[in-house]
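Section 5.1 Outputs to date
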Amino acid sequence: MPRRTPPQPITEKARADAKAARTAAVALLARRDYASGELRTKLHAQAFDEATVQGLIADLAGEGILNDERYAHNYVAYHAQRGQGPVRIGEDLRKYGLSDGLVAAALAGGFDWCALALKVRTARFGTAPPSSRGELARQVRFLQYRGFSSDHVRAATGADFD
């Protein structure tokens, strides 16, 4: 088995090399889509300087290679199919540096979150409504952990918390 050579330290000249930064960014984007803030963090971790990264992200966005709106919509669709709710998905997107307006627009994009909460609840606990307050509390905690708001939990469990 061939030995892997250790990575060479990045010189000051290489940190400002736009071509090397673009190559690194395209290699990352070839694997999966990234939000601009997430890509910025990855490139900083590879020791590229701020000015180079900022210019590169602007260029990639101008070319349509990097698109935060597309990323947000794809992220919401994928994670909703996995049974996650809008609260959890929204926090993840904000963590990746997307604006509140962009997150809100992506979350409003055609999902019936109440129906999804019901589907997630029935997949986990069956179609019968909760039989006791303990069971209700268990189902509520589960749905809240998955990222559903109290309105979605009420609709899925038929519970009245007041």
